[in-house]
Amino acid sequence: MTTSMRHQPTRLQAKASHAAKPERIALTASSVDPIRVHMVGSAWFGTDRGGSTRYFSDLFAALQRRPDISATAAAFGVADPGGQSWGSFDRGTISRVRSSRSAPPADTAIVDRHYALYGRGAPRGASVVTHFHGPWSLESAAAGKNKPTVAVQRFVEQARYRRSERFVVLSRAFKALLVERYRVHPEAVSVIPPGVDLTRFEPSAIPDGPPRVLCVRRLERRMGLDVLLDAWPAVLADVPDAQLDIIGTGSIAGELSAHVAGLGIEHSVKLCGQASDAELTEAYRAATVTVVPTRSLEGFGLIALESLAAGRAPVVTDVGGLPDSVHDLAHDLVVPPENPAMLAERLVGALQGDRPDVARCRAHAENFSWSACADRHAALYHEVRG
To answer: What pLDDT does residue 244 have?
Structure first.
């Protein structure tokens, strides 16, 4: 994005500079006719199980429950109720891009884009709101993608963001990243924390038996799973019967399996692969604590909220928006990234009882409801169209 974009805000950006800060948007809004919002994502959660796709699906469901918003949505895979599918996600990038170019409904007032690569441009007269879930090109660079690929992704991001009038991020850390790295005007960025499904994830008593640590992550390098494995022998030195369950799939699954073998910790570490919602619920019930060991580029960490809703304290790294999920609960649950010794020390303490109890974790999670998140989005849409 050009420097002039930052210093010459659009009409709506300029209007925002005289209005309330995005972080302080009112939680209620009304309109004679509902605002027609069309959400554009990468995939539906049932097809691609990740934090951003769960967010997309759950936000869509929450917006559909509001009388002042008429929400439609499109993404790849089996669509959620009320949504549209662009077809199978299992095909080449160019084919997916072409399939995603179907036009939004003709009466769309706001296109809410959740992924830079997919979706057609907004209809004439419609506004564009962009959800910045993360820096696509920087994430690819961190994953080891080649420079030409990263450059193309950066170009796509810049082109898409240049046409956006407002942006939504989940944390203050990602607002700073969007402003500093993508030159977006700060008054155009709203910080709206995500929600968590308080019925899907319910609290339960911590079971007797060997203490268990649960980690639910994509198996990618930036998630810090190698750091967690490096910390695990020190955990076992103090808690010999501890068990570690890692749920997720990704490109470094083979590397992690070899790393487990190399450390000689196969007896206490299980790489579980992908889990259904029912299996994930049972994994939380079996856990003593959870861990989110991300090393870079974490927007918020929805998995930390899910853990809290299930009554399990998450130990998280001081990366991106992760501290926002636990700071008001217990700031000592946050540890430095890429530090196996400190991660091991905090996990040992948590396994030995130094952690918020089930009731405190659940009460904290209840501050993050999807209805409150939808309220703030609706207020933003009304502001944009006002």
So the answer is: 98
Residue 345 CB contacts under 8 Å (≥ 6 apart), including other chains: 234
DSSP 277-289: HHHHHHHHHH-SE
| Predicted structure pTM score | 0.81
Q: How far, in Å, CA of 330 to CA of 27, rounded? A: 27
CB 365, CB 309: distance < 8 Å: yes
Half-sphere exposure at residue 381, Cβ-oriented, CA atoms within 13 angstroms: 31
SS3 label, residue 194: coil
Domains parsed from the chain with CATH numbers: 3-194+369-385 (3.40.50.2000), 212-365 (3.40.50.2000)
> DSSP state, 170?
S
pLDDT of residue 32: 60
How much helix, strand and coil, in percent to the nearest 5, is found in the chain?
40, 15, 40
Please give the DSSP secondary-structure letter assigned to residue 22: G
Strand partners, 174: none
* AA letter at 103: A
User: Nearest CA to 203 among 360, 310, 356?
Assistant: 310
Distance CA 249, CA 273 (A): 5
Residue 80 has φ and ψ, to the nearest 5°, of -70, 165
**Inter-residue contact 33 to 107 (CB < 8 Å):** no
Report the 10 Å Cβ neighbour count for 275.
17
Low pLDDT (below 70) residues in the chain: 1-32
Mean pLDDT across the chain: 89
336-384: pLDDT as tens digits: 999 999 999 999 999 999 999 999 999 999 999 999 999 999 999 999 9
CA torsion, points 234, 237, 242, 243, in degrees to nearest 10? 50
The string of pLDDT tens digits covering residues 47-63 is 988 888 999 999 999 99
How high is the pLDDT of residue 10?
40
- For residue 377, the SS3 value is helix
